[in-house]
Amino acid sequence: MSPQPARRNERSRRAILAAALELLAESGYADLTIEAIASRAGVGKPTIYRWWRGKGAIILDAVVETFPDVVELPDTGDLRADLRAVIRATVAEFADPTLSATTRALTIETLADDDLAGQVRDRLLRPQLDAVRARLESARAAGRVRPDAPLEQVVELLFGPIYHRWLLRTGPLTEPYADALVDLVMAAIEPAGG
Amino acid sequence: MSPQPARRNERSRRAILAAALELLAESGYADLTIEAIASRAGVGKPTIYRWWRGKGAIILDAVVETFPDVVELPDTGDLRADLRAVIRATVAEFADPTLSATTRALTIETLADDDLAGQVRDRLLRPQLDAVRARLESARAAGRVRPDAPLEQVVELLFGPIYHRWLLRTGPLTEPYADALVDLVMAAIEPAGG
């Protein structure tokens, strides 16, 4: 392919992803249509269907590209402080109306479509979960985490409650909430007498 | 209304709820239609729309009526044993394909419809969350739980990770998994030196 069409394709692709996120924030996932995305992006519907099989796949690509390096977990040597940083940031994402709308859309697709569920997990969430797990491993090596703590489950103990509260709207998603969650998880994994 | 039509209405209502659960288990939520439910239940579509505004509301009523007294939490005096019983049962529900399909359907509706979300939370989940919270309170009164443990968040610490694992399919939903989860939460809430 000559440089010219490649550049045009890339421009269209970015316009489509941006249009999808804009429309999602404006009017929600239920009302999001391929037609509206095409119109906002200034492309034809066939262009979209050439690259994606549905709106869920578009939103996933848009989110992955918009937040590519979101998972730099700090390692200050203070596990509680490092977990507070990442859990505060995660809680803030769920509390943000725009980001919450994209998470809502992807969760609906995750529930309805096994293939997309695997992609959401592996491309979007797995890097973050693995970064937290790696930080827990380094803390365990430093003697700050019980040797027998099941780290995969500890990661879920951090993120699962946020998801639960967001989904069921059972309480506020605030910084004090985030810190209390980290304190609970720290109490669960600290060595006895630590 | 004379007894005769009342009985006929009740028979139709039950047939509709049963048909909805059957069809959901057979072919999934995406393919579930009001038309199919009406046909299976032997009623007209207008009958259904007179009583419910959509398939999500039907599934919610069906689940609430099918599992009415699901939340008898034991109080044996042994908090760990009592939590194991309820968390093993919850994990088994999420692992069961039929129950998982109804939870999937209700979760999709919860994400798309604020009003139904409130009903799912208050009619279906709140009784269970409150029963666990009451058990934690009695344990705290007996000195088995740290006085400063935030019990609302402890309840989410128990259920959130199950939801997370089920949604993202990141690991098996088994009895050893359930027990390890309870052990983590117990470590988080037990008094120092307890």
Automatic annotation (TrEMBL), chains A, B:
DNA-binding region: 33-52
Origin superkingdom: Bacteria
Listed PROSITE patterns: HTH_TETR_2
Residue ranges occupied by any HTH tetR-type domain in the UniProt entry: 10-70
Keywords on record: DNA-binding, Transcription, Transcription regulation
Pfam families the UniProt entry points to: TetR_C_11, TetR_N
GO MF annotations in UniProt: DNA-binding transcription factor activity; transcription cis-regulatory region binding
Protein name (Swiss-Prot/TrEMBL): AcrR family transcriptional regulator
Organism: Actinoplanes octamycinicus
